Each structure stands twice: as structure tokens, then as C-alpha cells.
Amino acid sequence: MTNPSLEFSTAPVNASVATPGKRLLSLDVLRGITIAFMIMVNNNGGPGSWHFMNHAQWNGLTPTDLVFPTFVFVVGVSVVFAFDARLARGADRGQLARHTLSRAFILIVFGIIVNSFPFFALAHMRFYGVLQRIAICYLVVGLFYLYDQRIWTKVAALVATLVGYWILVRWVPIPGVGVPGRDVPFMDMTQNLVSWIDRHLFPHHLYLYAPDHNVRDPEGLLSDLPAIGTALIGILTGLWLRGQRSAAKKAAGMVGASAVSLALGYLWALEFPLNKNMWTSSFVLVAAGYSLALFAFTYWAIELRGWRTGWTWPWIVFGSNAIAAYMFSELLPSGLDAIRFNAAGHPTNAIAWVFQHCFEHISNPGWAAFAYSVTFTAICFIPVWILYRKKIFLKV
Fold first, then answer.
1. CB neighbours (10 Å) of residue 188?
2. Closest CA to 203 of 219, 190, 217
3. What does the pLDDT read at residue 4?
């Protein structure tokens, strides 16, 4: 059975290309692929892992940087179908708004639990995070779509978020520092408006901090603004798929949108560099371009070609409980890391011990790290598969 209090919109969506009630399987598969690779790159096997299994240190882009924005994009697409389905069944908008608020709050609580487990040290408890950003994006675009389903307002909001964020980061003086590009390098790793706000809002509660100073947080407050832009692109994609046109035209439209988004993003990156940590406007467009390309492929393969069996199964299982899979993948290593002991006279923990005795025997460090990453993801698949078999869906 499903717990209604945990029923959220990014789990399998009962929706169709044009009408509520028929499952859009390609969206379920895209969600599952995204969460599986999110687990892999978050548990990539350490410093020996290949370059593309790691985030770019600052400016730049790797495939790993595309995973999180793809999930936010999926949230936006899912909002359209999930909300339309509930409205078609007679749900009241006020009721849906209250549910959206409560779901966002629960996600934020889940995010703090993931950040703090198992010790919950309040002195440096991190309040930002992946689930918190998803919650904010879901809340904003969900309420926006609930009360205004016009396309042009979503386009206007998207332009406003991306251009507005660029203006804030590029031209607004940083208090006590100066104007970016004149008094301090533009897109400096620590001296930027995003980090300045976070250091003053949550001192010593950031992802990167030290006892005597704060540094920055990759899911900071101001960078939620362009992340909302990512979700808005998902909303626009959902509106495109909801329309009364052929499936072939819908797939072609996503391919075209992907090309335009990539071109605009890479062009803008010449002035506003690609940067996942700050979620720059150019990063939003480039990441959305790749998300659209992947979605166009799953849509073409499943909705047009009818390739629905076999290869889709693991992704559907992962996608059916995406947030549960993510939370398990974050809580498990935190718990194992807390298990400290001495082995051969040296202090270690459970994860390091397992890696040393199981994966370090692989001579190539990249393959050793990749084997660990795949094995860890397979372990995370087990509880999600059990939930799937029992038809328990914690939908967020």
C-alpha cells in the first residue's frame, strides 16, 4: 500500500502524451536512468575514479555534472502530468497547493536527515542540499503551474531567472569585496555573491567550511534561482508533450529544442562560464540540452518504436522510488563510514576495508573504482526492487 502523506509527483506518473490516465513510460525510464547514475557518481570509488565520474572542480563540465539538473528537469516534466491527472479527477486547486507545500517541507526534512546522519551535529548541520533544492524547485514551479498553465508566462519566467541571475552575479557589488571583474575576478571560487550570501545566512553550516572560516555551498540560496529555470524547462517540455500533435512531432520538437538549448548555452558560456557549483545560466541551458536529448531518445525508443520490455525494467524499478533510492544511497555510506575499527594495526572504516579487500585487487584504479560504483548501485537496487514488488511507492 502507499502512504498518502509521502505521495509526491516525481515517482511514476500516471499520464499520457495528451490525456491523463495513461503512463508515459519514457519519463519513468528517464527518471530511473538519472537516479541510477546519480547514485553511481556520488559513490564513484574515490580518487582513482575516471575523470568523467567526478564533478568539474569549478568552471567546466563533465557528464557527472549533468545528473542533478536532469533530475530537476524531470521534476518539471512530472509536475505537468501529475497535476493534470489530479485536476482531471476533480481535485481542488487549494488542496493541491497544500499538498505541494507539505511535500516540499517533507523533502527538506529528508534532505537535512541525509546531510546529518548518523550524528546530527547541530553546530555544523548543513541545511542546504540536493533534496532541499529539489523541494524548492518543485514548490515554485508546482504552484506556478497549478495557477497559471500558459506557455508564455513560463518562457518569460525562464528568461527572467537566467538573465536576472547573470546580472546579479556579474554586476552586483559583493559587500566588502567589490565589483566582479573589476575588484575581484569574475566567477572567483570563493569571492562571489552566491557564496557571500550563504556565508552570512548560514555561517559554519555550509558544504565547505573550516573552523575559522566558511567557504561555499554548491546548493546555496541564490543559485536556487537558475535551478528553478531548469525546472521551468521541464514544465515547458511537459506542456509540449501534453499538446495534441503526433508522437513523431513531439520527439522531433525535443530534438530541436535540445539543439537550440545547447547552442545558446555554449555561446553564453563564453561570457558566463559553465559551472555546476554556481548553477550558472549557461549551465542551465547546456544541461537542459543534454536532458532533452536523452528524453528524446527514451521517448523515441519507447513511445514511437515500442521498445518497452527487457531493457526498461531496471530503470522503471529505480524510477518508481527515486527519492527512496537516493536516500538509501546516501544513508548507507554515512552509516558504514561511522563504523570505525583497527585493521592490521591501522585505523579504518567499513567502506575503506571493503574497498581494500574486494576492489583494490583490480590493478587498474579506474576500473577498480568503477567496479565499486556499479556494485554499490546494485546493492541500492535491492531495497528499491523489494518496494517495487510490494507495490510501495514513496513518491516525491
1. 14
2. 217
3. 34
